[in-house]
Design a protein that fits this description.
It is a single chain. 34% of the residues lie in helices and 24% in strands. The strands form 3 sheets. The protein has a 6-stranded mixed β-sheet with strand order 6-9-10-3-11-12, sandwiched between helices. Helix 4 crosses helix 5. Helix 6 links the parallel strand 9 and strand 10. It has 10 helices and 12 strands. The chain has a domain of 177 residues: P-loop containing nucleotide triphosphate hydrolases (Rossmann fold), CATH 3.40.50.300. 44% of the residues are buried. By secondary structure, it is α/β, with parallel strands linked by helices. It binds adenosine-5'-triphosphate (ATP). The site of adenosine-5'-triphosphate (ATP) has 11 residues, from strand 2 and helix 1. It comes from Phycicoccus duodecadis.
């Protein structure tokens, strides 16, 4: 297994889980898991349903505390008491069901909870133009050029654009660690490619990204490092290029069965790794 305490250039992780176990009344959801997230890198957490992925998110975001083991931020052990504690330390989570409000504009969604204001009390009001400028600038920087009007309702955006908005908002408000819960799960091929490119753009701006997925193709396209979880344990940890898509499918529970169902030509594509989505 790859050493998780330093990366190839020797920098310390921004966030680290060290031999973490989490039990829920008789069920061990996560066992002896060590995982490190580095600035400017995408760490992909792969696993089938029930592998323990959501529990890892909860441990990193202060929803749950480990039964044993440590959570460290920049080398300091932390004990989050709430998601707010984690957010205050720069850990932001974008959940699969993206937390955007469809009947509200792109700009208002972007600044939700931190609205810029204009004027003095009692005439203070939300500065919609400032919100619009911030939202469009961030989306443009992240390569989402299709959204040009901050007044557009979020309900009219595609799934990928909504993910982009939520990710852009997190980065804009200072997230150093971005936890993305299955951001491509409900998207088609083109939309997934948009989100995968976005993940790389966020990484290139220096964020540490934890990309949770059960899609080996998406992991292959975006990950610098990967951890495969099965039954709450890390059964493999590896760097980009060390494993093929076929290896990863094999590692995940059910992989062998799924592989056996493919036609010969489909299997060849997977085995060659040629099925990667181009990003
Ligand atoms: N609060 C809880 N109480 C009891 N068992 C739990 C609790 N939370 C999770 N578990 C169990 O821990 C295991 C891991 O669950 P977890 O939700 O972390 O998996 P997952 O990889 O996120 O799965 P999915 O992709 O289906 O959401 C499962 O067996 C689950 O039933």
């Amino acid at each position: 297994m790859t050493n998780t305490n330093t990366n190839s250039v020797g920098t310390a992780p921004v966030v680290e889980l060290r031999e973490v176990t989490k039990r829920f009344s008789g069920v061990t959801a996560v066992q002896d898991l060590s995982l490190s997230l580095y600035a400017g890198q995408v760490h992909c957490l792969l696993g089938e349903n029930g592998a323990g992925k959501s529990t890892v998110i909860k441990l990193l975001t202060g929803v749950e505390r480990p039964t044993s083991g440590q959570v460290l931020i920049e080398g300091d052990e932390v004990a989050f008491n709430s998601p707010r504690d984690a957010r205050d330390r720069g850990i932001a989570t974008v959940y699969q069901e993206v937390a955007t409000l469809p009947m509200m504009s792109v700009a208002r969604n972007f600044v939700l909870g931190a609205e810029p204001t204009i004027g003095r009390w009692p005439f203070r009001r939300i500065d919609d133009r400032a919100a619009e400028r911030a939202a469009l600038a961030e989306l443009e920087q992240l390569g989402i050029a299709r959204v040009r009007d901050g007044r557009q309702l979020v309900g009219t955006l595609s799934g990928g654009e909504r993910q982009a908005l939520a990710i852009g908002r997190a980065v804009h408000f200072g997230a150093r660690v971005l936890v993305l819960d299955e951001p491509t799960a409900a998207l088609g091929v083109r939309e997934s490619a948009t989100v995968l490119r976005l993940i790389q753009a966020v990484r290139d701006r220096g964020a540490a990204v934890l990309f949770i997925t059960h899609n080996a193709y998406h992991a292959h396209a975006a990950a610098d490092h990967s951890t495969v979880l099965r039954g709450g344990r890390a059964i493999a940890q590896f760097d980009r290029g060390e494993k093929s898509i076929a290896d990863v499918i094999e590692l995940m529970a059910g992989g062998a069965e799924l592989h056996a169902l493919l036609t010969d030509s489909e299997r060849n594509v997977v085995d060659d790794g040629a099925g990667t989505i181009g990003v």
